[in-house]
Automatic annotation (TrEMBL):
It holds the Pfam family SCO1-SenC. It comes from Bacillus salipaludis. It comes from the Bacteria. Gene3D superfamilies: Glutaredoxin. Belongs to the SCO1/2 family. Residues 27-200 form the Thioredoxin domain. Keywords: Copper. This is SCO family protein.
């Protein structure tokens, strides 16, 4: 009886360990495709394969979000101040916010979102969407990024998206480094420390 119990316990342990290993390996190998092209809040083209100089902290939002998205953006505004004081924001790292609702979140709407948070439009924090007349392709481009980082989202039909709650740090080649909780669980100090560790 003890032997069966030990075998069952070992099987469960190996199963859990295997599952954890799978997710760790999957995340470590995640990379945003270099061919992803969107437009920013000013209507300018942004291509993920062109910037090979900076880390990126990537946030997914939609501007109609009532809670976790604006809370995360607010915390990132505070994080930006700390990174500016450290001398690394814009030099070693940039922020990238991508809408998961490109149809409603036009460049003009994103500009309003930026202004609402008092974010300086200095090209070191870009807000990405796509052109309305090419929405099918825009959604495919956004999916390339979310799929690469395992960020899940869905519109149940009422315009209030159900989505994952993580932000992502990627290196200059857009390869996954780490992920952090969104909303109230976004730990500014933890993210700051990770960024500084990767820039020194």
């Amino acid at each position: 009886m003890k032997k069966i119990y030990l075998i069952c316990s070992l099987a469960v342990f190996l199963g859990i360990a295997g599952g954890i290993s799978f997710f760790l390996i999957r995340d470590a190998n995640a990379a945003i495709p270099a061919d992803v092209t969107l437009i920013n809040q000013n209507g300018d083209t942004y291509n993920f394969g062109k910037d090979k100089k900076k880390l990126k902290l990537i946030e997914f939002v939609y501007t109609h979000c009532p809670d976790v998205c604006p809370t995360t953006t607010k915390k990132m505004v505070e994080l930006k101040k700390d990174l500016v004081n450290k001398g690394v924001f814009g030099k070693d790292i940039e922020f990238v916010t991508i809408t998961i609702d490109p149809y409603r979140d036009t460049p003009e709407i994103l500009q309003g979102y930026i202004q609402g948070f008092g974010i300086k439009d200095d090209k070191n924090w870009v807000f990405l969407t796509g052109e309305k007349q090419n929405m099918k392709n825009v959604q495919k481009e956004i999916r390339k990024v979310t799929d690469a980082l395992q960020f899940q989202y869905k519109d149940p039909g009422n315009g209030q998206f159900v989505h994952s709650t993580f932000t992502y740090l990627v290196d200059e080649n857009n390869i996954f480094i780490a992920k952090f909780p969104m909303g109230e669980e976004f730990n500014k100090q933890e993210v700051f420390d990770k960024i500084i560790d990767k820039t020194e």
